[in-house]
Amino acid sequence: MIRGIRGATTVTDNDEQEILKASEELIGVLIEKNNISPDNVVSVFISLTPGLDAAFPAKALRMFPNWTYVPVMCMQEIPVKGSLPHCIRIMMHVQTETSQADIQHVYLRGAISLRPDLSIK
């Protein structure tokens, strides 16, 4: 089964190091909470809200051992009026036997407001 594992976080500034640090933190928690092996990852989509363009968050993913060949695409979110600003969202497509209800979606920092019902179990 291929499941989508979601996550999001926020940053305060459009700063390369801040974007990379927040992305690395989010990716690390997603990996840990869902016991993700890069060999089981089909692809990863990472989006940033308008105004965040100082770094590619995929660069943070490449800092993890053995994630070199995982296909990753960065993109910009659509600019919906009133949406959470300075937000980085991740969607990992993972081959797993874990049930949909047991997937651990991760929302950190200001992004907790997006899905408080799916906060870390």
TrEMBL record:
Annotated catalysed reactions: chorismate = prephenate
The cross-references to PROSITE patterns, in alphabetical order and at most eight, read:
CHORISMATE_MUT_1
SUPFAM superfamilies found in the cross-reference section: YjgF-like
Q: What class of enzyme is it?
A: isomerase
Q: What is its EC number?
A: 5.4.99.5
**Which UniProt key words apply to this protein?**
Amino-acid biosynthesis, Aromatic amino acid biosynthesis, Isomerase
Q: Which GO terms describe its molecular function?
A: chorismate mutase activity
Superkingdom of origin organism:
Bacteria
Q: Which InterPro entries match?
A: Chorismate_mutase_AroH (IPR008243), RutC-like_sf (IPR035959)
Tell me the Gene3D superfamilies matching this sequence. RutC-like
Specify the protein name.
chorismate mutase
Q: Which organism is it from?
A: Bacillus chungangensis
